[in-house]
């Protein structure tokens, strides 16, 4: 019998193991790091514009040893946590409500659609005027940048619940609040969790924007300070660190979602 051809990992509907997934991801990051290292080692780019990986790592090591890095990171992580939780606490019930009731959708969705197209950056001067430059302003920017998107994503997740599920609840003569709490929300929760995971990435972006413009602490503030003194190694180091934090939170939510929604493992 002729030997079977190995299946391509890039074939439509092809599946890969967890180990293959991790291996491919690590290889991609290794290639990007190698390209960066080669470009700086051969001086294809001036160090002022792109310092080498060892120089960036050395600067991060200095900041970690002095405690500055941990202080900046802890402040930014606290702000992102509080701001994102506030946004989610508002968006979750509103998204479920307008996803279930057309009348509420008519009241809320046009306003949400209208505001979500306004650039968040344009609100930064207003939020400074309203709340000053403290943490409240950071929470408000994160809320503006994520709340309206979350509402629409959660609405779509709720609308994806099959009508048969809802009709079953009515057949069992369940009151509407129990249909919402026992059927609609649990059925939509896997999709809602993915939507929250995606919107968390936006929250990181808007936090850094707020810290870049109006802050006296945090990672975004440190990047702005470094820019004044042409400390490119610090800027790139903090940008990479922000990427690591974002990737870590994303993968943590992914792993937690797999544990909470085991029945969706085949997706």
CATH homologous superfamily heading: MetI-like
For the secondary structure, the number of strands is 0
The percent range for helix content is: over 70%
Low-confidence stretches: none
Q: Beta-strand level of the residues, as a percent range?
A: under 5%
Tell me the name of the CATH class: Mainly Alpha
Largest sheet: none
Which whole number gives the mean pLDDT?
89
CATH fold assignment: MetI-like fold
- How many distinct folded domains? 1
Distance between the termini: 35 Å
Annotation field: number of helices: 10
CATH architecture designation: Orthogonal Bundle
SSE string, helices as H and strands as E: HHHHHHHHHH
Judged by helices, strands and strand pairing, the structural class is: mainly alpha
CA-based shape? globular
Rounded to an integer, what's the Rg over CA atoms?
Answer: 23 Å
InterPro entries: MetI-like, MetI-like_sf
Keywords: Cell membrane, Membrane, Transmembrane, Transmembrane helix, Transport
Membrane topology: Multi-pass membrane protein
Domain ABC transmembrane type-1: 73-253
Explain the overall architecture.
Pfam families: BPD_transp_1. It is a multi-pass membrane protein. The chain crosses the membrane at residues 21-39, 77-102, 114-133, 139-158, 202-223, 235-253. This is ABC transporter permease. It comes from Dongia sedimenti. The structure is a single chain. The protein has 267 residues and is mostly helical. The protein has one domain (53-264): MetI-like (MetI-like fold, Orthogonal Bundle). It has ten helices and no strands. It has helices at residues 18-41, 53-66, 68-100, 102-116, 124-131, 135-159, 163-171, 176-213, 219-228, 232-260. The two termini are 35 Å apart.
